[in-house]
Amino acid sequence: MNILILTDNEYLYKEFQTLISSNNYSAYNFDFYYSYNNINFNVQNNCEIKPINLKREYIEIINNYNLVFSLHCKQIFPSELVDRVRCINIHPGLNPYNRGWFPQVFSIINKLPLGVTIHEMDKELDHGPIIIQKEIGIYSWETSYDVYQRIRDLEIKLIKNNLIKLLNNDYRTFRPGFEGNINLKKDFNKLCKIDLEKKVSFKDAIDYFRAMTFKGYRNSYFFDEDGRKIFIEIRLEREEGEDDQ
Ligand code: 0FX
Fold first, then answer.
1. Count of alpha carbons within 13 angstroms of residue 134, beta-carbon side
2. What is the DSSP letter of 78?
3. Nearest CA to ligand 1 atom 6
4. Where are the domains of the chain?
5. How many angstroms separate the CA atoms of 222 and 210, rounded?
6. Residue 215: which residues within 8 A CB-CB, separation 6 or more?
7. With 90 as the cut, is the pLDDT of residue 40 above it?
8. Residue bearing the CA closest to ligand 1, atom 7
9. Is 72 in the pocket of ligand 1 (CB under 6 A)?
């Protein structure tokens, strides 16, 4: 059985490589690709991962693979590909809430549920029959970065616990009863610029800043009176108490 893994996420790529290096998966052939336009993907010399342009090369995929996994692949899958080959998406959100980009950012802001969804793909974004889904709560002291670490751990756990079933098409699916909402990269970019005149409650302001705080990225900003661009992030610290551990 030939399986294609498409990923633009180095962490998930490495975790998946480690997982399939065990004997349980010796009967399966896995090939790895990342998006041709992902200039940030850090390919080590000894890595067996190559760039691919899905729009141009999807016919070869249809001809050569029995199953495709998207582990955070940033390209849109052509509809012919999802119609002709079983394609499974690992999504860091709880479909159909906040489908699309950076679900935890939007869930902190719009207070919609969050989790991880593994689903068969159709031609719409983060849509299609759900195979496995788990919700996680968001604590009041967490930033986007904190929540994302827990989402990523959950993604890896769900893949580990279910990979054989996913490979063998040994599962049942269900469809959510509504379409939900979608956020795109441009929606996130729009969020980054702070309107200094906007009136909001402290609760919404704190939620906004923690949603935009992610180690390694400068997200929210405003322009001061001299036109200088000023970036903001927030630090939340929970008082230590009896319910720790
Ligand atoms: O790989 P990934 O975690 O996932 C993203 C989408 O959120 C996901 O829904 C889609 N299926 C997948 C293909 O792409 O994205 P990332 O590694 O670019 O970003 C991870 C987190 O980092 C993100 O949730 C929020 C944070 N981040 C990222 C960027 C690029 C920021 O806070 N600011 C940024 O500018």
1. 14
2. P
3. 101
4. 2-183, 187-244
5. 16
6. 145
7. no
8. 102
9. yes
CA dist 120 and 129 (Å) reads: 5
Residues in the chain: 245
Name which of 67, 45, 52, 47 is nearest 7 in CA terms: 52
Per-residue confidence (pLDDT) for residue 23, from 0 to 100: 75
* CATH number of the domain located at residue range(s) 2-183 in this protein: 3.40.50.170
CA distance 245 to 181: 36
* Rounded Cα gap, residues 70 and 90, in angstroms: 6
pLDDT tens profile 47-68: 689 999 999 999 999 999 999 9
Amino acid at 87: C
Write down the pTM of the prediction: 0.95
**Ligand 1: distance of its center to the CA of 62 in Å?**
28
The three-class DSSP label of residue 21 is coil
Alpha-carbon separation of residue 4 from 15, 30, 31, 133, 148 (angstroms): 16, 6, 5, 22, 25
139 close to 106: Cβ distance less than 8 angstroms: no
The rounded distance, in Å, linking the Cα atoms of 137 and 140 is 10
Is the per-residue pLDDT at 245 higher than 70? no
Rounded distance from Cα 82 to ligand 1 centre (Å): 23
Instruction: Supply the residues annotated as catalytic.
Output: 91
238: tokens are: 């929970």
Distance 92 CA to ligand 1 centre (A): 9
Rounded distance between C-alpha atoms, residue 243 and residue 146, angstroms = 19
Nearest to 118 by CA among 58, 159, 157, 62: 159
Query: Which pair of tokens denotes residue 221?
Result: 């900003």
Nearest Cα residue to atom 13 of ligand 1: 72
Beta bridge partners of 118: 90, 132
